[in-house]
Amino acid sequence: MDLAKYRARAEALVSQMTAEEAAGQLTYEAAAIERLGVPDFNWWNEALHGVARAGTATVFPQAIALAAAFDPKLVGKIADAIATEGRAKYNQFDKEGDHSIYKGLTYWSPNVNIFRDPRWGRGQETYGEDPYLTSELGTAFVKGLQGDGEHFKAVACAKHYAVHSGPESLRHEFDAKASKKDMEETYLYAFEKLVKAGVGGVMGAYNRLNGEPCCAHTFLQQKLKEWGFAGYFTSDFWAIADFHLHHHVTSTAPESAALAIKNGCDLNCGNVYLQLLTALKEGLIQEEDIRRSCVRLMTVRYALGMGEKTEYDGIGYEEVESAAHLRLAREAAEKSAVLLKNDGILPLSQEALKGKTIAVIGPAAASETVLYGNYCGTGSVTVTILEGLQQTYRASRILYAKGSHMYKDADEDVAAPDDKLSEAVICAKAADVVFLCVGLDATLEGEEGCAPNFGLAGDKRDLNLPACQRRLVEAVMSVGKPTVVVQTSGSSIVTGAEERAGAILQLWYPGVRGGEAAARILSGAVSPSGKLPVTFYKNCDDLPDFCDYSMKNRTYAYYEGEPLYPFGYGLSYTRFVLTSAQKRGGRVAVRVRNAGDRYGETVLQVYRKIESADAERNVRLVGFLRVGVRAGEEKECFVRLSPDRLRLIDDDGNAYRYGGEYDLIVTDGSGGEPVKLRCKG
């Protein structure tokens, strides 16, 4: 959207404001200016995977799950649905005079930080560890949420700018050290793409970056100018207060307010900007600093339709959690699930289990919490894994045992340790097949202050299941019955069942229709097609220190070890054969054949590999495409290559064209034979 026409109106409006009135618009709870017809406005709203914290809404799979679908079109459809529900809610909230927090249209999503370390609790909010995948999905989210109309349907916000991925406990004081190469190659890539796609907002991170706080960072603000950013810049909650309280780059709140606004931070999520008039009086800032930021904010509000009718005013409340949106949520959960292992046990059809006994065991089975992840709304009707299996296998006898608490030694108060374990063993012994449902939820990984996980501030200590669940896995696996593990998490985990389970399905945090989607995959109604957007490591032993922001030995692009499951990996119930590939300009033409007996979808992935370790150690994703192929069909597909990712970045952060020979490796990540193309740069 071209914001120029709205900017002219904003400039005219702000010119009529007093300095006090203009300053009052620069906090997230912006006051009304009745004499100018400016209503009150709350900038703080969330929509990571559905309208969040504003009551009932469709809860789609968590962002990391959406990344596993490798499907920008799907993400765009979901973002459009989120904006529709957001408008529906806003239209009614506005009629009720409710403009409070979480009720507006400026959403602080998506999170396009790079998931560089599997211990980071907020990694579930991201699109994974690859900058290109992140940028493609983030761009699709922005365009879907903001729409292509005369006004913004809603406003997206790229966060957290920049170089932000834990530890959560140190984020208010931490100074992330990143090289110029890592900045350009990894940390800034997605932000640049989203800005150039027209994202309406950017949020600064809590931490410092190479010595400067990110919400007042000269280099980061200069990059935004270079990229042509025309929206508004906001601090994270309380981040400006960290300047004097924790980073100690200033001494007082007025000094912090001055540093932030002079360095490009328009909006304060917090209360430090209440000191702007004091800073003005003390000569720390000029009135123009206040007015400049106010113009940017009013430009966005006019673009949303402040003071006039919009094309979205007719969206009614019936759009909230509509049948179409719930179907989309189930589709997304189905496309997101990743089949990590299958010895042939899956699929288990309804007919195959008719009249037989199924044991559904584990703390994730009947949990609604595992469906949601963090930053979520509230579903009026949810389908847990247990409920999905009960609905699907109606002709089977289903036994259920929780088996353990999610993380406590005893599930019931004043009970003996492992109080539910023997029940799980009893059910497993009585069953013909076991669905063992284990994993994490948003109480065990997430944001500081939101996940009460053993004093780790939302981060994970390691990749293992909690001890009580590890004991459950061991006890159930020792029974020796055919067992399928269904695991929930927003990150890489190790269950202890990798060697002995017949199959493992990674469900992530799959949204309100997650249990239905899981059952459809397990029963074979749908073939799994998700691919890992992060590396699943065997453990953390050979990973760098959590606080080390160098990309060395991190993510699939730099990791020097052998992963448990690699980035881009995911099995199917059918078999895809890549018969040939040719580079045609900026695309790779791939012929893919479905050699199985059922329709399936997969993700064609193109990686660049340079043999010279000095140039690039590992493969690098340069293109991908989700495709569907009927049984026995062969089709030609065209995968667009990213010209940016075909370039190399030197130690000074400069991009250059590699002139030597390199390979393009085409795979679908399911273990089949890849196709290689020798190319010249």
Descriptive notes:
- The protein is an alpha/beta fold.
- Helix 1 packs across helix 12, helix 4 runs parallel beside helix 5 and helix 16 packs parallel to helix 17.
- It starts with a helix and ends with a strand.
- The model has no long low-confidence stretch (mean pLDDT 97).
Main attributes of the structure:
Rossmann fold; six-stranded mixed β-sheet; 23 strands; Immunoglobulin-like; 681 residues; single chain; alpha/beta
| Count of β-strands | 23
For this structure, the quaternary state is single chain
- Name given to the CATH homologous superfamily of the domain at 323-530: Glycoside hydrolase family 3 C-terminal domain
Report how far the terminal alpha carbons are from each other.
35 Å
Largest sheet entry: 6 strands, mixed
Predict the CATH topology of the domain at 323-530: Rossmann fold
